[in-house]
């Protein structure tokens, strides 16, 4: 299982790192039959940062007396080690996001309690300042988010670890969001303080799955390893030319409906029509067709077909936050047209959030979390195809 998760993480990391490079090459005729010359590519050195972040956190209880007792007997501490790149002007998206940091990180923690284990994580992250760089000020304020995989948990086991009902699997999703403030100590050293939210969950892949939620606080030290001071001047960005696009997506995941029970496949076929109205945002409508294997075993209603017990459908309102031309954060709310409560479709609406990469101009890959309210339903690993005709011209730094 851990090898499978590491492969998935590596696959997504590679897509995220090279997606804008691949699309840039295709847009300039390397992969396509005809040169289109849409993008202006340039080579420039990126600033390379190394960040060490020790942390403490308040871990939230699941509300049960057993869960509270487990937390009371635990003491949490952790650290993060992150590597980040800062892309110079005149890169279009670097300017739009005020020369943000993008990178990968490693997380290590201990609860000093064998019932939790020693969770670790690998993740991708970004940090975006609220304001443009001001050389006259030592202070910068921003927001940070991370998404990845975690491992090293000691999960629930009815015989050997019955008190840990927070997590049912050794390997889980890692999600974090922070607000932070940085202070420039010297040209290559920063001191960063931050506070936020972190969540571990397997989205019902293995039950129980209350999840571990915490409110961490960190004091970080950041060092510019290659001492490259990037160009932060703001070039003229052309007015955005809006355009329509369509996504066709096929996703797969697995879900457990009862503790110790069989895992069943869940698939989704999605069609989305979107309108991108700015460099950063696109929105539109869509439709989902859901398949939940084993529905006939969870419902014994006479006269109801096997097809009806396994399939459901919904319509969606979708948005995408575009971080770079080939990287986006999909967001959505859906409303069931037909649902089966025995397949854990227990609300009339559902939510989605995730990470998506576009590569070779039209192909999509990513992961979304589908949830009902605050309860995760399934991880949707998806592949897809995007129909679009983007007439905008982008300035883009070659990643490698």
Automatic annotation (TrEMBL):
What keywords are assigned to this protein? Signal
Query: By its UniProt entry, which InterPro entries does this protein fall under?
Result: Lipid-A_deacylase-rel (IPR018550)
What Gene3D superfamilies does this protein's entry cite? 2.40.160.20
Q: Signal peptide span per the entry?
A: 1-24
Keyword Signal listed? The answer is yes
Name of protein: Lipid A 3-O-deacylase PagL
Give the lineage: Bacteria, Pseudomonadati, Bacteroidota, Chitinophagia, Chitinophagales
């Amino acid at each position: 299982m851990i090898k499978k998760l590491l492969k998935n993480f590596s696959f997504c990391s590679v897509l995220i790192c090279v997606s804008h490079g691949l699309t840039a090459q295709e847009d300039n005729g390397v992969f396509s039959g005809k040169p289109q010359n849409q993008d202006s590519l340039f080579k420039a050195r990126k600033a390379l940062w190394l960040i060490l972040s020790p942390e403490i956190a308040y871990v939230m209880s699941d509300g049960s007396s057993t869960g509270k007792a487990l937390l009371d007997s635990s003491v949490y501490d952790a650290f993060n080690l992150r590597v980040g790149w800062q892309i110079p002007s005149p890169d279009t998206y670097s300017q739009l996001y005020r020369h943000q940091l993008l990178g990968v990180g490693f997380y290590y923690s201990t609860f000093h309690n064998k019932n939790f284990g020693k969770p670790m994580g690998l993740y991708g992250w970004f940090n975006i300042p609220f304001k443009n760089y001001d050389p006259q000020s030592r202070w910068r304020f921003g927001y940070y988010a991370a998404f990845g995989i975690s491992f090293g948990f000691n999960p629930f086991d009815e015989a050997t670890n019955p008190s840990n009902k927070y997590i049912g699997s050794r390997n889980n999703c890692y999600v974090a969001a922070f607000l932070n403030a940085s202070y420039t100590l010297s040209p290559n050293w920063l001191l960063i303080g931050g506070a936020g939210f972190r969540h571990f969950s397997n989205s019902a892949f293995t039950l129980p799955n209350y999840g571990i939620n915490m409110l961490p606080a960190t004091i970080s030290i950041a060092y510019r390893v290659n001492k490259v001071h990037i160009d932060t001047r703001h070039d003229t960005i052309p007015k955005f030319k809006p355009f329509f696009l369509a996504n066709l997506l096929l996703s797969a995941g697995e879900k457990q409906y009862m503790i110790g029970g069989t895992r069943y496949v869940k698939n989704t076929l999605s069609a989305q029509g979107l309108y991108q109205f700015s460099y950063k945002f696109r929105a539109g409508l869509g439709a989902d067709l859901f398949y939940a294997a084993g529905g006939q075993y969870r419902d014994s209603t006479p006269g109801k077909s096997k097809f009806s017990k396994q399939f459901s459908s919904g319509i969606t309102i979708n948005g995408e936050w575009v971080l770079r031309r080939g990287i986006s954060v999909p967001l959505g709310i859906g409303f069931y047209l037909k649902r089966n409560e025995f397949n854990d479709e227990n609300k009339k609406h559902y939510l989605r959030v995730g990470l998506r990469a576009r590569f070779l101009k039209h192909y999509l890959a990513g992961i979304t979390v589908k949830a009902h309210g605050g309860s995760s339903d399934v991880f949707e690993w998806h592949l897809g195809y995007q129909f679009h005709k983007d007439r905008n011209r982008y300035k883009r730094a070659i990643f490698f």
